[in-house]
Amino acid sequence: MPNVRSALPWLVLSAIVIALDLYTKHLIQRMFVYGEHVPVTGFFDLVRYHNTGAAFSFLANAGGWQHGFFTAVSTLASAVMVYLLVKHPQKKLFCLGLALVLGGALGNLYDRLTLGYVVDFLLFYYQQWAWPAFNVADSAICVGVGMLMLDSFKQPTAS
C-alpha cells in the first residue's frame, strides 16, 4: 500500500509552483491594465493578457464551452497525478516532472475557476513573430512535460 507521506516532498514542490504562479499573476493584475505592454528587452515584454483557452490560447475563441471542459480535464488530470506521486515517490525524475505539471495545472485551474480566464504575462518575440504569452504555471508544465519525456527514455530497472 502506497504511503501518502512519501509523496509529501513532491506535493510541497507543486504547492511552491502554485504559490509562485498565483503571486506573479497577482502582481501583474495589480500593476497592469488588460492589454498593457512594458518592453523589458528587444525580445521580451511584460504584458497582461487573459487566456480563456488552454495552452498558448488553444480554443480561446470557442464560445465558452471550453471553460468547463478545461476545468474538468485539469481536475481529472490533477487527481491522476496525485495518485501517481503517491504510488511512485521513489522515481525522482518522473515525480519531479509530475510535481511541476501538477503545480502548473492547479495554478491555471485556480485562475479559470475564480476569474474565468488565465492571466498570462510573459511575451517573447522576434521582429513581427511572437510566441503566445504565458505564465509561471505554463512554464512549469512545459519543463515538467520535458522531464516526463526524458524519464520515458530511461531503461526500466529490475524489481
From TrEMBL:
It is an enzyme of class 3 (hydrolase). Its EC number is 3.4.23.36. It is found in: Cell membrane. GO terms for molecular function: aspartic-type endopeptidase activity. The chain crosses the membrane at residues 7-24, 65-86, 93-110, 130-150. The keyword Transport does not apply. The keyword Nucleotide-binding does not apply. InterPro entries: Peptidase_A8. Pathway: Protein modification; lipoprotein biosynthesis (signal peptide cleavage). It is a multi-pass membrane protein. Its main location: membrane. It catalyses: Release of signal peptides from bacterial membrane prolipoproteins. Hydrolyzes -Xaa-Yaa-Zaa-|-(S,diacylglyceryl)Cys-, in which Xaa is hydrophobic (preferably Leu), and Yaa (Ala or Ser) and Zaa (Gly or Ala) have small, neutral side chains. The active site is at D120, D138. Keywords: Aspartyl protease, Cell membrane, Hydrolase, Membrane, Protease, Transmembrane, Transmembrane helix. HAMAP family: LspA (MF_00161). This protein specifically catalyzes the removal of signal peptides from prolipoproteins. Belongs to the peptidase A8 family. PANTHER family: LIPOPROTEIN SIGNAL PEPTIDASE. This is Lipoprotein signal peptidase. The lineage of its organism: Bacteria, Pseudomonadati, Pseudomonadota, Betaproteobacteria, Nitrosomonadales.
